[in-house]
Amino acid sequence: MSELLRCENVTKRYGNVLALDHVSFTLESGRIVGLLGPNGSGKTTLIKLINGLLTPTEGQVLIEGDKPGTVTKTKVAYLPDNIYLNSWMTVQQIVEYFADFYADFDAARAYEMLERLGISPKMRLKSLSKGNKEKVCLILVMSRQAKLYVLDEPIAGVDPAARDYVISTIINNYNPEATVLISTHLIADIEQVLDEVLFIQAGNLLLQKTVDEIRAENGKSVDELFREVFKW
Amino acid sequence: MNWTLDKHRPLCPQICENLCRDIAMGVFAPEQRLPSVRELAAVVGVNPNTVQAAMNAMEEQGILYSVRGSGWYVREDLTCAQEALSRLRQEKTAAYFRIMETLGMTETETKQFIKEWDYE
Amino acid sequence: MVKKLFKHELAFHLRSLLLIWGVLLGVALLGRGIQLFEQDSVIYNVVSVSSIIVYIIAVTVCLAAPVVLGIMRFYKNLFTGEGYLSFTLPVTPFQHIWVKVVAVVLMEVATLVVSLLSLALFTVGDVFVEILKAAAYLVKEVHQVLGNHLAFYVVEFLLLLLLVAFSQMLLYYTCITVGQLFKKNRVAAAVGVYFGYYFLSQVLGTVFSIVVAVTPEEVWEKIGEFIVENIFWCVHGFFGVFAVLSAGMAVAYFAISHAIIRKRLNLE
Question: Who contacts B119 (Cβ-Cβ below 8 Å, separation ≥6)?
Answer without folding.
Answer: none
